[in-house]
């Protein structure tokens, strides 16, 4: 009787450990799946709004030394055909029917004046509170306005009023590197929990015993005579 009761206790303890392990695995799986889904959703939301403008600004290669800018002309346009570009637009997904185009000239270092167009950023659009087109137009949208600006070394006809390379790098890091890192860690964790991630070892074929040489009739007669 004592032996049977001890065996039952061992079986119950093993079952409890198995149930606890299953619950822990379930909770970890739910947490990792939530992190993976959240990271993927964050990428879908953050890439077009923040990462893409920051990467485009880095590719434009703005000169870190500000130049002197003067607004020469302001065009207030109506119609989709006339608003192929705008100096500032709140919202980047819809087409603009009404737009303001600012033409400026800038002087970098000791060079002559160059014509350019002024954008609020490299895309010419954004979302509040980062982009406020009303304040932008009040500050730069009148003829004769003077202000520092940054010109693009990739396209010398594009200038922006503010620029910080460190800020753009930080934006790319926050919006791309962090979600990708979290999603990658969550995916690796799910793979380690539920998949056989380690490569299988190939089984070596069993070695065959060496074949004995076949003796001809002459060889057998020689062995017999010996």
Automatic annotation (TrEMBL):
Q: Which UniProt keywords apply?
A: Membrane, Transmembrane, Transmembrane helix
Instruction: Give the highest taxon in the source lineage.
Output: Eukaryota
This protein's record includes keyword Hydrolase: no
Q: Has UniProt tagged this entry with the keyword Transmembrane helix?
A: yes
Q: Name one Pfam family in it.
A: TipE
Coiled coil ranges (UniProt) are none
Q: Name the residues that span the membrane.
A: 24-51, 176-195
Q: Which GO terms describe its cellular component?
A: plasma membrane
Q: Name one GO biological process term.
A: regulation of sodium ion transport
GO molecular function ontology, one term from the record:
sodium channel regulator activity
Which InterPro entries does this UniProt record tie to the protein? TipE
PANTHER family from the xrefs? TIPE HOMOLOG 1, ISOFORM B, TIPE PROTEIN TEMPERATURE-INDUCED PARALYTIC E
From the Swiss-Prot or TrEMBL record, give the protein name: Protein tipE
Instruction: Write down the species.
Output: Pieris brassicae (White butterfly)
The record lists the lineage as:
Eukaryota, Metazoa, Ecdysozoa, Arthropoda, Hexapoda
């Amino acid at each position: 009787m004592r032996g049977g009761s001890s065996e039952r206790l061992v079986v119950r303890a093993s079952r409890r450990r198995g149930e606890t392990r299953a619950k822990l695995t379930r909770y970890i799986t739910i947490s990792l799946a939530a992190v993976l889904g959240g990271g993927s959703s964050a990428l879908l939301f953050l890439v077009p709004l923040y990462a893409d403008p920051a990467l485009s600004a880095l590719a434009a290669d703005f000169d870190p030394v500000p130049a002197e800018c003067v607004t020469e002309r302001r065009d207030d346009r109506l119609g989709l055909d006339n608003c192929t570009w705008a100096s500032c637009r709140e919202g980047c997904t819809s087409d603009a029917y009404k737009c303001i185009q600012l033409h400026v000239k800038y002087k970098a270092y000791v060079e002559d004046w160059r014509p350019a167009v002024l954008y609020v950023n490299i895309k010419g659009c954004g979302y509040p509170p980062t982009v406020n087109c009303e304040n932008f137009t009040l500050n730069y949208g009148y003829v004769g306005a003077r202000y520092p600006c940054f010109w693009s070394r990739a396209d010398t006809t594009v200038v922006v009023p503010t620029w910080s390379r460190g800020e753009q790098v930080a934006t790319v890091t926050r919006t791309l590197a962090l979600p990708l890192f979290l999603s990658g860690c969550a995916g690796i964790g799910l793979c380690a929990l539920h998949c056989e991630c380690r490569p299988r070892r190939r089984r070596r074929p069993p070695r065959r015993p060496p074949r004995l040489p076949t003796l001809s009739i002459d060889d057998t007669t020689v062995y017999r005579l010996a």
